[in-house]
Amino acid sequence: MQQLRIFLIILGLTLTSVIYGQWDPQLCPDGPTPIPDPKWRRIPYLFEIMTELISGNELMELSQAFSTVRDAVMLNSRNGPVQFYWYFDTNEQFEVLTVIINQQPIPVCLRQVIGTTSETSVIQANTLFLKPSVLLGYDNRNQINPSWGNQYIGDEILRGIPTNKFKSCFYVPDISATVSATYYISDATKFQAYLPANGSIILKIDVQIRAQNGRQEIYTYNVFRYTPYPSRREQRQALETPEGVYCPNRTSTLVVPQNIPERVSSNSEALITQLNNSILSTHGLYDTQFQFSRFDIWYPDPIGGPNWLHYTEIHDFATGLNYQYNQITHQCSIRNISI
Question: Which of 87, 92, 203, 229 has the fewest CB atoms within 10 Å of its CB?
Fold first, then answer.
């Protein structure tokens, strides 16, 4: 019987290590808190949060738009604004930043594939700055974290608002780090703000985090606005990369149009990095009945001239001829379509 008891103790410790990872006993001497306290009001699966992130002497503005499929973080620091997007439906991550080319600010989009070793719990890989959503009970792929919880530890007045304090200790597998976080949440029984009845406001999160490799950080999220269930329009706009920003090799999520009519026109724009990140505009006309198509393109002068260039190409499939016309020089050439 004694041997069986020892075996069960060893098995329990082993399972705890597997489930919670190699959490730091110095940072969390009482172990993980896997169950949310009854006083805690669960964070909804759609929200937006605006914060001030303080780490040492550095202050950054950070906001997050969150859903269970996608999320976005907007960061403004002394290095300038950066926007991060995680699309778990296509397993892609985008980083939109601004670079200066010829004294002009140009937005640039960088794409990465989200793989099994990607660090998506943090704002940027190789850092320990957790997304607000991870601190609020969601995992690295925006699903509810079954190993996350907290414990009510008392009340406090913060910014003149009565709050409930909670303590949480949990392990973050994708960055191999232990987290100790303290939450200040408005007391719904004593303070009612812009939220529905019995709703609480997140006011502050103090974070201590230590990775297995010895790195550690201490920082604070001061929350200035928390919006559960934002409108669909706001959510869609916040989770989509900015208009006019081209992300190379991006996976298309739009359905290919079916039953295209016999006569159709289209307009498009593209960012051409080889032309000093200039915008190329096009207009197309297609008519299957008359076996005719026309393609117009406008683009800046590649040698830096002040005027835009305009080029037209016409395919007449009825005659098999291809007309190429320069709208600036008025020169026209005619060739067989096969050439």
Answer: 229
Spatial separation of the C-alpha atoms in residues 97 and 240, rounded to whole Å: 15
Structure tokens at 238: 């916040």
Q: Is the dihedral of CA 181, 182, 186, 189 positive or negative?
A: positive
List of residues 6+ apart from 69 with CB closer than 8 A: 87, 88, 89, 142
For the beta sheet containing 151-158, the strands, ordered from the edge strand earlier in sequence to the opposite edge, are 104-113, 92-101, 80-87, 70-77, 58-66, 47-55, 216-228, 202-211, 177-186, 161-172, 151-158
Q: What is the pLDDT of residues 19-69, one digit of tens each?
A: 445 778 999 999 999 999 999 999 999 999 999 999 999 999 999 999 999
Under DSSP, is residue 280 helix (H, G, I), strand (E, B) or coil? strand
**Are the C-beta atoms of residues 67 and 141 closer than 8 Å to each other?**
no
User: CB burial class (10 A; 0-12, 13-18, 19+) of residue 332?
Assistant: exposed
- What digits encode the pLDDT tens for the residues 200-239? 899 999 999 999 999 999 999 999 999 999 999 899 999 9
Do 106 and 278 form a contact (C-beta atoms < 8 A)? no
- Name the strand (E) or helix (H) holding 132: helix 132-135
Q: Pick the closest to residue 43 from 227, 215, 308 (CA basis).
A: 227
Do 25 and 17 form a contact (C-beta atoms < 8 A)? no
Residue 80 CA to residue 34 CA, distance in Å, equals: 38
d(CA 193, CA 173): 36
Give the span between the Cα atoms of 173 and 183, in whole angstroms: 21
Which has the higher per-residue pLDDT, 289 or 38?
38
The Cβ of residue 324 has, within 10 Å, a number of other Cβ atoms equal to 14
Q: How far is CA 229 from the centre of its chain?
A: 17
- Mean pLDDT across the stretch 305-312? 84
Contact indicator for 164, 185 with CB cutoff of 8 Å: yes
72 contacts 83 by C-beta, under 8 angstroms: yes
Residues in Cβ contact with 338 at an 8 Å cutoff, skipping those fewer than 6 apart: 320
User: Tokens in use for 86?
Assistant: 């995680």
The reply to whether the predicted model has a pTM over 0.90 is no
Output the CATH code of domain 22-239. Answer: 2.50.20
